[in-house]
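Z., the sequence and structure:
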Amino acid sequence: MVSKCEKCGADIPDTATFCPSCGAPKGMNQPQPQPAQQYQSKPMGNMSQGSMEDLAKTLFSRKMLILGLFIGVLLLVISSFMINFTEPNVWDDMHMQHFGTVLRSISYYGMGLLLICVGLINDTFNKFYRLGMIIAGGFILA
């Protein structure tokens, strides 16, 4: 099948991308798709491998590592106050101690997983730092 060049009117074969006569791109004046058609959302399962890697590197970057460890240490301090500075015989204080213990466990597990994930995913660190993060995360989780 043959189409006509919109610039000079010459015949362009379907396999060609440019007009053989004038060199104009095939279909240069075709109407552009509407914005609603152009920017359709993709289902999560169709994300490209590159965008998933970019997302993982963003989530496990140096700044997120520092922020995550800071939040983890802050939660550990708060949980220590909840456990150590409450009366063990008072009913409400017993609940605070249990909540402090749960909060301490969550912060340890979160920091351990964060260190392991950053060590495995973020390749901007030196390989020995990455290995150290993985080992430290394993010790925290053990």
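The chain has two domains: 1-28, 60-141. The two ends are 68 Å apart (CA to CA).

Let me know what you think.
H.
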